[in-house]
Design brief:
The chain has 335 residues and is an alpha+beta fold. The chain contains eight helices and 15 strands. The structure holds 2,5-anhydro-1,6-di-O-phosphono-D-glucitol and manganese (II) ion (3 copies). Its main location: cytoplasm.
Length: 335
């Protein structure tokens, strides 16, 4: 049950019964993410005024220059989830290894692990373009009350119990799923409350937007090159419109609302593309499927991929169902 303008807090309580596993624990977890999102939002909004823009001079495990807001957002999400004793483990794009939460409480029975991309689109911070946060939640597979293990994090995306993102855009929104559709909440910054503004979000079956970093065109596989040419061809409702922000969260969010496809293929420079399976592709794939869209690596369903390492990368094609299927067709034909 959902009512427009319901607060996120009310929505979480009223929809607990639709969770796959009925426990207040997942509700408390979403509540913590809501809190951390508000804290990070506050910082993102004043980024130009305080000394929070720019690089910290460190490189993360991904080989990327860490931005101050990458580090800040990472700390805030980890702190919030740790202090409130909500989860048993956290993995993050910005951390080399997963974090095991050593609760003071011997009877720590927390069952969930969270994987996060604390700040997505960090190259856009300095130029005042939308950035985001992505999160993914699993039930641990090792026994409760013991330290978490790598296998708790290396689960197939289809095992996710919740996933979502925050987009710090012209307005700040939290969009998430617990496996029963996708709902979007907009923050009223005056009172610090998220309200249900986008109930039951869905991708249209067809769309007219394609989003890809075409600067890499020369390095793309032939199937992707052919699909891009198809998008640009004059026929039927084509050529499509090209839109690429460079923040996965914002590109996905726009395409879900307007209908479209997002592609980050492999290239002759990056054998598995750029996006991270666990922090970016799996949560977005669950959201896409819950919103009647599709997510693929070009040949296989993203949610069926068996992860082998924390920071694994994977080619990513995601969005309106018929568009993703057409791109897959081009990939198969070029094999
Ligand atoms: P992050 O800022 O979390 O490292 O993610 C960056 C990702 C994603 O947000 C975006 O879609 C993509 O990188 C953009 O990459 P290009 O600049 O290569 O197009
Ligand atoms: Mn990064
Ligand atoms: Mn990212
Ligand atoms: Mn990031």
């Amino acid at each position: 049950m959902s009512r427009k303008n319901q607060t996120l807090g009310e929505f979480i309580i009223e929809n607990q019964s639709s969770f796959k596993y009925t426990s207040g624990e997942l509700s408390r977890l979403i509540n913590s993410i809501r809190l951390a999102a508000k804290v990070v939002n506050h910082e993102v909004n004043k980024a130009g005024l305080v000394d929070i823009i720019g690089a910290v001079g460190e490189t993360n495990i991904q080989g990327e220059d860490q931005q101050k807001l990458d580090v800040y957002a990472n700390e805030k999400f980890i702190q919030t989830l740790t202090n409130r004793n909500i989860v048993c483990g956290i993995a993050s794009e910005e951390e080399d290894d997963f974090i095991s939460i050593n609760s003071q409480d011997e009877n720590n029975n927390n069952k969930y692990v969270v994987l996060i991309d604390p700040l997505d689109g960090s190259s856009n911070i300095d130029v005042n373009v939308s950035v985001g946060t992505i999160f993914s939640v699993y039930r641990r597979v090792t026994p409760v009350g013991t330290p978490v293990q790598l296998e708790d994090f290396l689960q197939k995306g289809s095992q996710q119990v919740a996933a979502g993102y925050v987009v710090y855009g012209t307005s700040t929104m939290l969009v998430y799923t617990t496996g029963a559709g996708v709902n979007g909440f907009t923050l009223n910054p005056a009172i610090g409350t998220f309200y249900l503004s986008h109930p039951n979000m869905t991708f249209s079956e067809d769309g007219k937007i394609y989003s890809v970093n075409e600067g890499n065109y020369i390095h793309f596989p032939q199937g992707i090159k052919n699909y891009i040419k198809y998008c640009q061809m004059e026929e039927g409702d084509r050529p499509y419109t090209s839109r690429y922000i460079g923040s996965l969260v914002s590109d996905f969010h726009r395409n879900m609302i307007k209908g479209g496809i997002y592609l980050y293929p492999k290239s002759s420079k990056t054998s598995n593309g750029k996006l991270r399976l666990l922090y970016e592709c799996n949560p977005m794939a669950l959201l896409a499927e819950q919103a009647k869209g599709k997510a693929s690596d070009g040949f296989n369903r993203i949610l069926d991929i068996e992860p082998t390492e924390l920071h694994q990368r994977v080619p990513f094609i995601c969005g309106s169902k018929n568009m993703v299927e057409k791109a897959e067709e081009f990939m198969r034909l070029a094999e």
